[in-house]
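Sequence, please.
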């Protein structure tokens, strides 16, 4: 169980969540941020600062946003970035790439 970043983050990327994460498990893609589920310690601090309510506990993700549980996990897999579990964000782990499901969302 972990926190998940969902669709409201797409094309917003406020970034306050990345500043407060004590383990730096939030990584930047092209159009949104992603939480590395194996690195998240479930503290919930990111949830409290997200201005668009894009971060949810995976057990609370509504049916319409369920795919984002997989999107966050797969972003780190070989099929997208291949980063695995880097052990915490640093400048090497920022990309313009996104998960294909995020790429498929039309810009507002």
């Amino acid at each position: 169980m972990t926190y998940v970043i969902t669709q409201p983050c797409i094309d917003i990327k406020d970034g306050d969540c990345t500043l407060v994460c004590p383990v730096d498990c939030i990584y930047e893609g092209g159009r949104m941020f992603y939480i590395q589920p194996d690195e998240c310690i479930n503290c919930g601090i990111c949830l409290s600062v997200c201005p668009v309510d894009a971060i949810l506990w995976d057990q609370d993700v509504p049916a319409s946003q369920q795919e984002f549980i997989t999107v966050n996990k797969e972003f780190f897999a070989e099929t997208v970035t291949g980063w695995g579990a880097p052990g915490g964000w640093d400048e090497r782990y920022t990309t313009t790439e996104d998960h294909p499901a995020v790429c498929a969302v039309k810009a507002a």
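The helical segments are 16-20, 45-49, 67-74, 100-103.
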